[in-house]
Amino acid sequence: MPHDHDHGEHEAIIVEDEAGxxxxxxxxxxxxxxxxxxxxxxxxxxxxxxAKLESPGIHLGAKVIVxxxxxxxxxxxxxxxxxxxxxxxxxxxxxxxxxxVENTPKVHNLITCTLCSCYPRSxxxxxxxxxxxxxxxxxxxxxxRKVLAxxxxxxxxxxxxxxxxxxxxxxxxxxxxxxxxxxxxSIADLxxxxxRDHLIGVTRAVT
Length: 207
Description:
Elements: H1 22-37, H2 43-54, H3 61-70, H4 72-80, H5 82-87, E1 98-102, E2 107-112, H6 121-124, H7 129-132, H8 134-142, H9 144-150, E3 160-165, E4 171-175, H10 187-193, H11 196-200
Parallel strand pairs: 1-4, 2-3
Helix pairs in contact: 3-4, 3-10, 8-9
């Protein structure tokens, strides 16, 4: 996310929600301390796990997307019932419902949560700070094209932009379009192309 834009009279997306999720963080910290104290995890393991969860390039979503790109039957199942299809890949989905929305040449999908910070954590790890910020939650609905432009994604007017609002009962996940050279790449190569931002919808091209 760019940090040096002149947003004029608009709110800056990068401003973190100061209130954040303090209560949840206290619970996480307490659980972490218990696990370390009982010898179930080391401090180094915890630090490494957190780094992986917060990395925009390391997530389970890439495995799901590549499977959909390379298996037409799975692609159909994923769009019909995202949670069940993702569980087929031995991914322990904790969300009650996952709805997968597909980008096409004429449609782009953007994910937000206007009420709080609902996010498919079991698939994408922890949400980035901008996703839970008040500015992003408000502006992604009010002026989504401007928001995407600040991420470097300029959508032409002939592309329909659909904003999906997650809630406590459902989470959304974007299925991006595959790269043009899909057939010549290995599974590992394809997975490496997919960032967390593709699955939220703040970026589009997979190259």
